[in-house]
């Protein structure tokens, strides 16, 4: 909505230290809470598509648009491209967080890394390994040892993604 | 009269006996107003003594002293009647689907009441309000609070508070005022009921009763947020209605309506807040105290349940003493306690607490409903058509108004609004219960000449809501197709949920927005840093992912064993062919004997149902079982860590009679396991399947050769390459004896710090297989492989 766009723009300007007109990685890293967030780096990375070094406002907004709450009344026009905050796209975004090398699959190794990031507490390496194995196993249906996007979607079909990945002020 | 019959009948018609005795119990003890009963009882005793003793001074061979055991006797009989009614209810299969249990209990109560009334033409005993509030209500609330899933509760906390608080107020005042207007109409003969009395009635009738609500909703399983709203509302609006009730009683006592000043009204409002917050405050304090105490009880674990129960009850009593909300106190106490106490108590205490709580609450609830039924019959009523009907109508109307308006407002603030369907269910869940009834009964007769009318109206509303709404809520939920609860436990979900939490928190930081995720985060950190250190015995910071993982593994282990036992030997032969030579083969007789041993001694796994059903323990079932096992495991771990034991090797095989899984503990790993791990990684990487872990469980018979393990990988690989669609991975069998040579024991410590070992396994070298929650199609292959490995150490394979 209008109001939220304005708010985001103000935020964008606040973050942009040197008034460059775009954000680079260091700007985002300045956000304190993000630094302690285990997924902080990955989140920052997700803003910068294709390895670019800067993100302008539209890119900024585009990423954040994934988190708009889903609006039930919006009828899906099959011909128009899916809105960015649809469930599929939200899931795609989340998928990107896992899949660093963008090969379309979460390999075991990538899963392990994410797991290691999130579970920090006195967990041994083997435990992590077996947890990863189990995770991959649970989701993996075609037995290729990695979780493709569709498998990812399927494993989360019961979960209320729309609610979990929605930020109210972006409505 | 009845006692004579009692004596005369040797083949006792025990039901009649029960009823009769209850009648005598009831009429003699529980009816505090009924003094004639005492005389009657005295009469019967005297008569009895006369009948059985020889007239004069002889020693009586057979005499009866009823007075001595009277009170406990009666209480026991009442409780027994309640339990029998419940059993009967469940025996008849169709009935639970038709109506909630509470309905049946009320019916039974009415029957008993009418028998009593019919035979004695006296009003049967009415449940004493103090019995209700002091003894019957706390266990139910405690159980509700203890087993409440806290996370959804706190996520919806704002909405719940908003809805419960304002909803109760709107309802109370709305009903009160509308009834007052009705009373003004001369035609109904109600003009002596003034505004205050109406308001009071409104306040007591608007109280949704947690007991009744839970009873009604046990069958209709709705999704979590909805359940939270309903349950939260039921819990919270008690405080409001009782406060209102007390305030209005105080006003009534001030005699003159005109004396009420705005100051009083303000004071009333302040009182709400104090009552609510005070109750919660005391609850939390007591929760912390009990958690702290359980920290030190490792040697006297028998008193742990006692501490838990006593402190919760104490919190209730203390709150009630100070006119604070006891219900809120006990809820807060339960919620606080649960987190910390669970980690401190031993496994048996944990189980005890759980089951005892369920038992207590179940008994209380049954008793409440039966009493309500009993109290209905009698002369306490005054029927006034207008009042009763309008009460009913207004209850529904005002509830509808409050639901829809309040939710309309709160939906603006929620990320995920409640749909109209959800709101309908919430509207429909306004089930009044024994709370209102007791409050109505507590009305002082002097101030309320029309008390009986109030009582009647209350009863009618209660009956209507419990029966009609109770019976129809199931079909209604199905009809409206409300989203059901769907808690599937899988590691994936837990992982992803965690990821999303972090993600959302991160994005919100980017946006500069503060939300409750961050509050939750902060609370968790605070909790970890300070609270846990103080309140928990041995501080093992756990990640919920790891805990869940362990839990699932455990559960699967047990499931696999269960299933593995049932498979036949048929699979053994074909796979023997696939084995590479050199692997030892077990003779079929050995296999048989192993299986037999295991079948007889296996820990039974119950089925899971995923829903909020507080009556059947199925809700807890294997989830909690696995948790129990885990906790036990942890305890064993801790103990052995404390004592510095290593694995008790060399225990004789086949001597165990296990009812629980014990977990031999192998020392925390590192070097050796890494070595093993490295070794097998090589194996693993050569496979194309997704890796699976094999957990070798403990085999004490020591016939295991190290080479078997290696050889097992090979057959597995060959199986795998044979095109079987399972995923086999490298085998991890960290054996701590490994470096001491190829030892027979396979005390292998699977990676996540445990292996589920059934000591039976030591004797029966069964391999266990787990069925992944996703693929039950693995079962057949599992069996194959399992048979395959029967000769080897018991293995936990996970696919």
TrEMBL record, chain A:
Keywords: Calcium, Cell membrane, Cytoplasm, Lipoprotein, Membrane, Metal-binding, Myristate, Nucleus, Phosphoprotein, Protein transport, Repeat, Transport. Residues 3-38, 86-121, 127-162 form the EF-hand domain. One of its GO terms (molecular function) is calcium ion binding. SUPFAM superfamilies: EF-hand. Transmembrane segments: none annotated. Gene3D superfamilies: EF-hand. GO terms for biological process: protein transport. PROSITE patterns: EF_HAND_1 (PS00018), EF_HAND_2 (PS50222). It is found in: Cell membrane; Cytoplasm; Nucleus. The keyword Repeat applies. It holds the Pfam family EF-hand_7. SMART domains: EFh. It comes from the Eukaryota. Its main location: membrane. GO terms for cellular component: cytoplasm; nucleus; plasma membrane. InterPro entries: Calcineurin_B_homologous, EF-hand-dom_pair, EF_Hand_1_Ca_BS, EF_hand_dom. PANTHER family: EG:114D9.1 PROTEIN-RELATED. Belongs to the calcineurin regulatory subunit family. CHP subfamily. This is Calcineurin B homologous protein 2. The lineage of its organism: Eukaryota, Metazoa, Chordata, Craniata, Vertebrata.
Automatic annotation (TrEMBL), chain B:
It comes from the Eukaryota. One of its GO terms (cellular component) is apical plasma membrane. Residues 785-799 have a biased composition (Basic residues). Residues 1-26 form the signal peptide. Residues 759-771 have a biased composition (Acidic residues). The chain crosses the membrane at residues 98-119, 131-148, 160-183, 195-217, 229-251, 272-293, 313-335, 355-377, 383-409, 425-447, 453-477. Residues 569-675 form the Sodium/hydrogen exchanger regulatory region domain. Keywords: Antiport, Cell membrane, Ion transport, Membrane, Signal, Sodium, Sodium transport, Transmembrane, Transmembrane helix, Transport. It is a multi-pass membrane protein. Residues 718-743, 758-799 are annotated as: Disordered. Residues 79-478 form the Cation/H+ exchanger transmembrane domain. GO terms for biological process: regulation of intracellular pH; sodium ion import across plasma membrane. It is found in: Apical cell membrane. Belongs to the monovalent cation:proton antiporter 1 (CPA1) transporter (TC 2.A.36) family. This is Sodium/hydrogen exchanger. It comes from Orycteropus afer afer.
